[in-house]
Amino acid sequence: MKLRLLAIALVAIAASASARASDLATIARASGTPDIPGLKMVWLAPWGDLANAHPWRNIIVHQTEGPAGSARGGALLQNKNPTRRGVMVWVETDGTVYWAVAENLIPTHGDGANRNDNKYIDNKPTYRQVVGNNSVGVEFAGNYPDVTRGPTEAQIAAWKILVKVLRARYGIPLERVYAHNWIDYKDARYCEGCALATMAREWGE
């Protein structure tokens, strides 16, 4: 009897997870400013018709040497000048996500995918290929004054949902989620975006 109840409970959990994934996929195809369960979204630039979005192929995870609260300022500046150096999506230390740039515009981020030493990943498929004009940039604020400080628990919780939304919306496979340090030579004091990109890949589908 106990085994039967356990089996029923496991089936229910699996069904619930499948329903959530299905709901997220539906939301990811929406337009406007949808409510995304589990995310506190600030829509500075609403989603348009997905058919008109830029053909994004990758996700690059960045971390900015700004204090807590700097994501909002960065996102507002990005929204005013979308093609400046920066990213489309900003994540604050409290987990708030700012969608700053319309998805048909291309912010300037990345350094040309100049890493080719295979230090973190195989760079043959990334060298000069995973660049700003084909990659959604996501910036996590808050590693100031200690650049080695990792993301907050709230940022990790937001990322767990956000990365699934981005992948579902633009059809980006797991293996195309990259840390900035994996594809570009960056600050030697820490590995920018590495923990977050690794988490995304380990979480899987």
Description:
It is a single chain. The chain contains five helices and six strands, in the order αββαβββαβαα. With 205 residues, it is of the alpha/beta class. Strands 1-4-3-5-2-6 form a six-stranded mixed β-sheet, sandwiched between helices. Helix 1 (2-28) crosses helix 3 (153-170) and helix 3 packs across helix 5. The two termini are 32 Å apart. 34% of the residues are buried.
Highlighted features:
alpha/beta, 205 residues, 5 helices
Quaternary structure of the protein: single chain
How can the largest sheet be summarized? Answer: 6 strands, mixed
Strand content: 5-15%
Shape descriptor reads: globular
Low-confidence stretches: 5-19
Outline:
The chain is of the alpha/beta class and 205 residues long. It is built from 5 helices and 6 strands; from the N terminus they run αββαβββαβαα.
